[in-house]
């Protein structure tokens, strides 16, 4: 059997499918440039700079011996903890996944049939597109305006008889824009009337101090067509454990559970996530840190000639470099020489080669980033002159 024979046996949707590019490739960078991981300041992955909650770390340490047992396949204790955390939902409204990305693919495998269309505003998180294609569906892209905002009427005008789902990321990755609850509800209500599902990725909603004014978690028991995705990666710093969850009406959760892989979430991830939700001091401190350092970093970046800095409600900032004379890849490579890793956004559909995304980190790290960017851009200007 040769390679062509293997391709002929594979599902046609998978043969030419391109995987999504992500930030946080810190291990790959470490090996490629022969640098210790601890020496790299990672501004490419939008993860809490405080690291995991102390309560999560303690839960992991005190439960290490229990890894000899299978994990709870239904993550019952964690689902109960999540329901108590939000107060407006029940454990039966929740599905837990091996990272929120697993649940994107679970969702599309359950609801996308061959030929179905999925409306995706761009630029946004790339896995929605890949998951839709993997399931045999067709992405329909709707470009955001110049300030990366969504017009509900423009989005809904693209709905037709083939539309199965509308994907929204709120706050949006990589732009940091935050839609109002009213605008999102307008989309959900209109979609409901046309039998269209709405998938809302709220992975960065935890960073919003008054998140209940923007999140639609309290609405899932009212709208049959609404699915909300949440993550323990970004805010709670558990990226390496892979754990996320989805919230929807009980009927939708029941369907999704039919496609869930048994024992999909490891035991330590479950206990760490449950402990994180109980750490109120950690939650409050994280929100204060991100708000303070985001304002600082935005202000300092705007003072650097040639940079266009977009406002953000998340723990990252989108920056346009085109007036500096450097592309995003060029700046990324120059910063790596100083042990700084940023996100080259040229892989995001809807963005060109002049955008970078910068995560919010500690004051010391943010100050170093500003110093090095100034140095690199001044050097680039001198070399052109």
Automatic annotation (TrEMBL):
Listed EC numbers: 2.6.1.9
Cofactor(s) it depends on: pyridoxal 5'-phosphate
SUPFAM superfamilies: PLP-dependent transferases (SSF53383)
Single GO BP term: L-histidine biosynthetic process
Record keywords, A-Z: Amino-acid biosynthesis, Aminotransferase, Cobalamin biosynthesis, Histidine biosynthesis, Lyase, Pyridoxal phosphate, Transferase
InterPro entries: Aminotransferase_I/II_large (IPR004839), CobD (IPR005860), HisP_aminotrans (IPR005861), NHTrfase_class1_PyrdxlP-BS (IPR004838), PyrdxlP-dep_Trfase (IPR015424), PyrdxlP-dep_Trfase_major (IPR015421), PyrdxlP-dep_Trfase_small (IPR015422)
A Pfam family recorded for this sequence: Aminotran_1_2
GO MF: histidinol-phosphate transaminase activity; pyridoxal phosphate binding; threonine-phosphate decarboxylase activity
Superkingdom of this protein's organism: Archaea
Coiled coil, from the record: none
Keyword Lyase: yes
Annotated catalysed reactions: O-phospho-L-threonine + H(+) = (R)-1-aminopropan-2-yl phosphate + CO2; L-histidinol phosphate + 2-oxoglutarate = 3-(imidazol-4-yl)-2-oxopropyl phosphate + L-glutamate
UniProt modified residues of type N6-(pyridoxal phosphate)lysine: 234
Pathway given in the UniProt record: Cofactor biosynthesis; adenosylcobalamin biosynthesis; Amino-acid biosynthesis; L-histidine biosynthesis; L-histidine from 5-phospho-alpha-D-ribose 1-diphosphate: step 7/9
Uppermost EC category: transferase
Signal peptide from the UniProt entry: none
Domain Aminotransferase class I/classII large positions: 39-373
Function: Decarboxylates L-threonine-O-3-phosphate to yield (R)-1-amino-2-propanol O-2-phosphate, the precursor for the linkage between the nucleotide loop and the corrin ring in cobalamin.
Family: Belongs to the class-II pyridoxal-phosphate-dependent aminotransferase family. Histidinol-phosphate aminotransferase subfamily.
PANTHER family for the chain: HISTIDINOL-PHOSPHATE AMINOTRANSFERASE-RELATED (PTHR42885), THREONINE-PHOSPHATE DECARBOXYLASE (PTHR42885:SF1)
Name of this chain's protein: Histidinol-phosphate aminotransferase
Record lineage: Archaea, Thermoproteota
Gene name linked to the record: hisC
């Amino acid at each position: 059997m040769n390679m062509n024979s293997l391709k002929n046996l594979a599902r046609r949707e998978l043969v030419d499918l391109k995987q999504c590019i992500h930030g946080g490739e810190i291990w790959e960078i470490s090996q490629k440039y022969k640098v210790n991981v601890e020496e790299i300041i990672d501004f490419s992955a939008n993860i809490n700079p405080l690291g995991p909650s102390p309560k999560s770390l303690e839960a992991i340490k005190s439960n290490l011996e229990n890894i000899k047992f299978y994990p709870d396949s239904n993550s019952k204790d964690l689902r109960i903890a999540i329901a108590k955390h939000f107060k407006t939902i029940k454990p039966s409204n929740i599905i837990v996944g091996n990272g929120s990305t697993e649940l994107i693919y679970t969702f599309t495998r359950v609801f996308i049939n061959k030929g179905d269309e999925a409306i995706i505003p761009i630029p946004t998180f790339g896995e929605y597109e890949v998951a839709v294609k993997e399931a045999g569906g067709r992405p329909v892209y709707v470009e955001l305006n110049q300030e990366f905002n969504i017009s509900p009427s423009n989005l809904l005008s693209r709905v037709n008889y083939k539309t199965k789902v509308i994907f929204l990321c709120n706050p949006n990755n990589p732009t940091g824009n935050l839609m109002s609850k009213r605008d999102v509800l307008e989309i959900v209500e209109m979609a409901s009337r046309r039998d269209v599902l709405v998938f809302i990725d709220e992975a960065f909603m935890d960073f919003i101090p008054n998140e209940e004014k923007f999140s639609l978690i309290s609405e899932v028991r009212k709208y049959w067509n609404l699915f909300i995705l949440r993550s323990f990666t970004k805010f709670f710093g558990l990226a390496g454990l892979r754990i996320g969850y989805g919230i929807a009406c009980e009927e939708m959760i029941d369907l999704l559970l039919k496609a869930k892989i048994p024992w999909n979430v490891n035991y330590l991830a479950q206990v760490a996530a449950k402990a994180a939700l109980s750490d109120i001091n950690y939650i409050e401190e994280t929100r204060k840190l991100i708000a303070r350092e985001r304002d600082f970093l935005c202000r300092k970046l705007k003072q650097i000639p040639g940079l266009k800095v977009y406002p953000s409600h998340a723990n990252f900032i989108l920056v346009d470099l085109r007036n500096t004379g450097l592309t995003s890849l060029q700046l990324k490579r120059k910063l790596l020489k100083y042990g700084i890793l940023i996100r080259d956004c040229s892989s995001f559909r809807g963005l060109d080669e002049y955008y970078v995304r910068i995560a919010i980190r500690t004051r010391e790290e943010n100050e170093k980033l500003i110093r090095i960017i100034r140095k690199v851009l001044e050097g680039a200007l001198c070399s052109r002159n």
